[in-house]
C-alpha cells in the first residue's frame, strides 16, 4: 500500500476507537448505574491514553511526510490528520488521561450539586478541571497564541476570540434594542395544563422523523442536558421532559436532530475518516438552530405542530394557530440558556464567553465565579438569579472541560441566519411544505450545501460556498427584527 493508504487504514481504526469512547459518554449520561462512576472515570482515562498514543504514533509523522494526495478528499484528510497530530503531540499522555478522569468525576459531581443547589460542592471539581485545561492550553499555545484561542481551536478551527468578540459586539446592540422594544408590548399567550411524559416522547419521535432523523441508525433517550452523540451509522440523541412545558421537550428534540442529521447525512465514503464528522461546532450549531428556530418555530411549521398537539393533548389553553405561533416564540424573562427565546439566547452565550475567557486568563478565580455570574446576569437581564441551578450550575459544559465551546453557539446562530437567507432565496414556496409538516426540501438543501461535505472544507469556506458570500451577523438580525416585529406589532 502507499503511505496514504497505510495512514488511512491506521486512522480508520483510531476513528472507530474514538466512537467507542464516545459511546461510553452516552452510556454515562443515559443508563449507567450511579455507583459505576469511579470505574467509568478509569475507563475514560484508559481510552484517552490509548487514543493519545495512537494519535501521536511516530509512524503518523512518517506517513504524512511521504503521502501524496491524489484528489481533494485526500488533501483534506491529510490536512485534518496533520492538524490533529501536531496538536496532540503537544499534550502529554499523562495530561490527556488526567483530563478524561477528572471530567468524568466532575460531571457527576456537577449533576449532584445542581440537584442540591450546592455551588460549594462543585467548585473543587471545577477548579481541578480548569487547572488541567489551562495546563493543556499552555502546551498547545506555546508562544504563538493565547491560552483561550488554543482551546477555541479544538471546537472552531481557525477562529480567534478577538474576531468572535467583534462579531458579538456588533450583534449585541440590536438584540438589546429589540428586547427592550418587545418588553413594552405585553405577554404572549401561554400553554396550560399537564402534558403527559409518554405523549411528549411520542410526539418528539414524530418530530424527529419529520426532520429526517434516521431511526435505523439512531435512538432517542432522556438526559438532564439534551445532547447528540456519535457519527456515521450510530448517531444518538437525548431530550428531556417537563410536565407543564412541552416545548422544552419538542424543541430540544428538534435541536438535537439538527446535530444528528448533520452527522447522518455526511457522504458515506467518509465513514470513519477525519472527514466523516461535522467540520466545526459553529457549523454544527448552525444546523441545530436552523432546524429548531427558522424552520421549527416558523409560522408555517407551528401551524402543523398546533394540530399535532391538539390531537395528543386536547385543549391546552391556546385558541388557534396564530396564538400558538406567538406562544412558541414568546420573548420572556428566564434564567436558562437552553430555554431562552431567540432574541435573548445569544446574550446568555456572551455572558459565558466573557466569564470563561477571564477564567482561562487567570483574571477571574473559581471562588469568585458565582458572584461574577450573578452580577453580570443582573446587569444584562435586569433581574437577579434566584438559585444556582438557574445560574452557575445550569450548564454541563465546564464540568466536562469544554472551555472554548460556548462562543460556537452564537457563531452557529450567525451561520444559521446566513443559511436561512440563502435557503429562502433558493427554495421558493417553502412555507407551503412546512405547513404540512414536510421539511424535506429545506433539509435536502442543507444536506446538499452543508451536511454531505463533512470536514471536506474549512468552516468559513463551507458557509461561504453555501450562501455565496462571506458570513455576517446582519441576516440573523434582520430575520429576528422581521419575525418578532410581526409577532409583537413593532
TrEMBL record:
GO molecular function, one term: metallocarboxypeptidase activity
UniProt keyword list: Carboxypeptidase, Hydrolase, Metal-binding, Metalloprotease, Protease, Zinc
Record-listed E.C. numbers: 3.4.17.19
Active site: 256 (proton donor/acceptor)
Positions that bind Zn(2+): 255, 259, 285
Keyword Transcription regulation: no
Comment on bound cofactor: Binds 1 zinc ion per subunit.
Reaction equation(s) it catalyzes: Release of a C-terminal amino acid with broad specificity, except for -Pro
Cofactor(s) for this UniProt protein: Zn(2+)
GO biological process: proteolysis
Top class in the EC scheme: hydrolase
Family per record: Belongs to the peptidase M32 family.
Role summary: Broad specificity carboxypetidase that releases amino acids sequentially from the C-terminus, including neutral, aromatic, polar and basic residues.
PANTHER family (UniProt xref): CARBOXYPEPTIDASE 1, METAL-DEPENDENT CARBOXYPEPTIDASE
Protein name in the entry: Metal-dependent carboxypeptidase
Species name: Pseudoroseicyclus tamaricis
